[in-house]
Backbone:
């Protein structure tokens, strides 16, 4: 039934309506692979791979790396599996098939998302049901990245005006305390958190102690993108909880963090940002969410400036009651892209998105727009 007849990769060119600035740079145009799986009985599953154009966020989070991994290793591995062993029965088969490939988490996540889309269509169920979700009302937040306090305040004004009650803002050395202060003074009651995207090191992180004054929910990834140990050490000296983003690629990494924070008796000051593409897909992401919940570690779902297609998958994931905090699911400017790929925009009301009963992600891909924005890159026949 699930016999895949072809896997193709399309490269989409997407224009952000408002440039997005973080400690590693400013982005306006994105190029992004989408995986399209076609089955023998005519279903089409689609998975977005929310890469950035270069590897500044972390290794293999860039478009060229994801394309190379797909073309050279992941897609041929799936085709070989089918040729040797027959149709892929389920997600575990798919994951064990390409487990031999080290890394390539973004590339794998796109194939997995497309496969989930097929499974959900076949079951005629929403993804949130397949994943054991129970929550229908999803509180959501926004991530603000600006070069100046004025830009940030204007995006925050827009976001709070639309009803969002949770703001995350990008900071870096020399642009931190004044950002937190400006937002906290203007919005005394908003849930406020900051994200440094690895901009601090062991010589300058102590500036973050000054953030204690602003009642922040968390400080996201202050240190090195591949570090867990030093984060756990500085956490002992910060009142604000630390949230790991870049450093977590798997359930195993998550367990490492849990064991380090437990030694400090500080599991309430560890928070994990779960991005399914950064952990190779939703199956691993779900395990991370459940494990964290069992250990008293809070989690939330991060974003990568995904299109509404990718955001809809993440919103379905947010139906799990294991997810504790609001995620980065909406743009502070109202919409991320000049042109998105679904037929109806995702809408939230007063900072809450309501999940419906629609099949799979609950949104419809606009194939005409999708094809207009995309270039076919490669096709693997199975
Ligand atoms: O660190 O969370 C991050 C965007 C691109 C890369 C990394 C990050 C982000 C965001 C945006 O913060 C989240 C979103 O609104 O999708
Ligand atoms: Mg982050």
Residues:
């Amino acid at each position: 039934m699930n016999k895949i007849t072809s896997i193709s990769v399309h490269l989409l060119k997407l224009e952000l309506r408002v440039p997005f600035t973080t400690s590693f740079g400013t982005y306006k145009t994105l190029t992004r692979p989408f995986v399209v799986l076609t089955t023998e009985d005519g279903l089409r599953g689609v998975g977005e791979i929310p890469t950035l154009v270069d590897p500044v966020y972390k290794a293999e989070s860039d478009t060229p790396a994801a394309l190379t991994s797909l073309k050279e290793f992941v897609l041929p591995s799936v085709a070989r599996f089918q040729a040797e062993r027959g149709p892929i029965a389920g997600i575990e088969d798919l994951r064990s098939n390409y487990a031999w490939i080290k890394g390539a988490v973004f590339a794998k996540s796109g194939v997995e998302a497309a496969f989930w889309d097929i499974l959900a269509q076949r079951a005629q169920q929403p993804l949130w049901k397949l994943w054991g979700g129970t929550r229908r009302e999803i509180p959501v937040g926004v991530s603000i990245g600006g070069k100046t306090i004025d830009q940030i305040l204007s995006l925050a004004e827009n976001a709070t005006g639309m009803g969002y009650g949770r703001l995350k803002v990008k900071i870096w050395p020399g642009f931190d305390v004044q950002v937190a202060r400006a937002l906290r003074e203007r919005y005394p009651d908003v849930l406020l958190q900051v994200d440094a995207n690895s901009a601090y090191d062991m010589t300058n992180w102590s500036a973050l102690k000054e953030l204690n004054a602003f009642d922040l929910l968390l400080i996201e990834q202050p240190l090195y993108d591949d570090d867990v140990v030093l984060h756990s050490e500085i956490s002992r000296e910060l009142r604000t909880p630390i949230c790991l983003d870049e450093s977590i690629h798997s359930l195993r990494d998550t367990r490492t963090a849990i064991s380090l924070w437990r030694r400090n008796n500080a599991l309430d000051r560890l928070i994990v940002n779960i991005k399914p593409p950064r952990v190779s897909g939703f199956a691993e992401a779900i395990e991370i969410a459940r494990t964290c919940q069992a250990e008293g570690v809070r989690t939330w779902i991060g974003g990568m400036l995904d299109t509404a297609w990718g955001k809809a998958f993440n919103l379905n994931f947010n139906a799990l009651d294991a997810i504790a905090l609001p995620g980065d699911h909406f743009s502070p400017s109202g919409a991320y892209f000049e042109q998105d790929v679904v037929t109806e925009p995702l809408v939230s009301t007063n900072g809450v998105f309501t999940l419906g009963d629609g099949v799979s992600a609950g949104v419809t891909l606009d194939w005409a727009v999708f094809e207009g924005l995309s270039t076919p890159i490669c096709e693997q026949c199975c």
Remarks:
- The mean pLDDT is 97.
- The two ends are 14 Å apart (CA to CA).
